[in-house]
Write a structure and sequence with these properties.
alpha+beta, Beta Polymerase, domain 2, 2 domains, MgTranspt_CorA/ZnTranspt_ZntB, transmembrane helix, CorA_cytoplasmic_dom, Magnesium transporter CorA family protein, transmembrane
């Protein structure tokens, strides 16, 4: 599957033309071509490599599903690798989809899988068509703008999920305790994954800002894009500290709960020990005040009640019960 677009002097003049017509279109002046490939086969890679003179290492990087976000410079073209990120708040899982781009002076070739939303990129291009006169820089900016906006949405969703988790941190129910433990570790794993996707984008966008294809007129748009990347990076680092705080708070809350349980168990054990001590004393085989008299039973019963109630009131005032 392949999608194509042809721009001439900043105007969209053709769409979805065959791959074989690209050479003819590029032969004309003031034309820019976009070619989009979805999970291309090795044969398609070979045709594109011959058509645009792409480096073999760039082709191998585009074929790799786990390439880190980066910007590589080759003779005659650049290679860009990035990831679109989506966070599902219900499951607490982060989904990423790789997208690669070969960047030449008059062509942008994008490569991705079925999970990448290229329609959003096309809508972004159509919404900013006044920048189309900048050629490949315009197309590349729209692509990266959609990717970075996706990073923003993912970080926002992670932030909301962490705040919701923080609200359940002090609930006493066993279900809430298990939820905090399980969900905090899932969110921490998703945040770590997102951090690996977001942080290298600073180098990518910064490198493109200094590239020759970015002229003075469109440079402010790339600078704005770089500012967005920095904001996402700072936000991600802040959430990393937030997750660590939640985990530490969860351990502290569990420690406090254990201390409260131990105080209650110890207090009840002390209360139960009083009747045991009194009845043990009165059960001895030696004469004592009230021995073999009804007054001895009354005295022991009164001691049990008074001492037990006294201990209960004392522990209650100290918040041990």
């Amino acid at each position: 599957m392949a999608r194509t677009r042809l721009y001439r002097n900043g105007d969209l003049v053709a769409e979805d033309f065959p791959l074989d017509d690209i050479s003819e279109h590029l032969a004309a002046e003031d034309t820019v071509v976009w070619l989009d490939l979805v999970s291309p086969s090795p044969q398609v890679y070979e045709r594109v490599q011959e058509e645009f003179g792409l480096h073999q290492l760039a082709i191998e990087d585009a074929s790799s599903p786990r390439e880190r976000p980066k910007l590589s410079h080759y003779h005659g073209h650049l290679f860009l690798s990035a990831y679109q990120a989506t966070f599902e708040g219900d499951g607490g899982e982060l989904t990423v989809c790789p997208v690669s781009a070969f960047i030449t002076g008059r062509a942008l070739i994008t490569v991705h899988g079925d999970g990448f939303d290229m329609d959003a990129v096309v809508r972004r291009w159509d919404a900013t068509s006044e920048l189309a006169r900048h050629g490949v820089a315009y197309l590349l900016h729209g692509l990266l703008d959609v990717v970075v906006d996706g990073h923003f949405d993912a970080v926002q969703a992670l932030d909301d999920a962490l705040e919701a988790l923080e609200d359940t941190l002090f609930e006493e129910t066993p279900q809430a305790v298990r939820q905090v433990q399980q969900r905090s570790f899932r969110l921490r794993r998703s945040l770590s994954h997102l951090r690996k996707v977001v942080l290298p984008m600073r180098e990518v966008v910064n490198g493109l800002t200094r590239a020759k294809l970015v002229d003075e007129e469109i440079a402010p748009y790339y600078q704005d894009l770089y500012d967005h990347v920095l904001r996402v990076t700072e936000w991600t680092e802040g959430l990393r500290d937030f997750v660590a705080t939640i985990l530490e708070s969860n351990l502290a809350v569990q420690g406090n709960r254990m201390n409260n349980i131990m105080k209650k168990v110890t207090s009840w054990a002390a209360i139960i020990a009083v009747p045991t001590a009194v009845t043990g004393y009165y059960g001895q085989n030696l004469p004592f005040p009230g021995y073999e008299h009804h007054a001895g039973f009354v005295t022991s019963a009164v001691l049990i009640v008074v001492l037990s109630v006294g201990l209960y009131v004392t522990f209650k005032r100290k918040d041990w019960l």
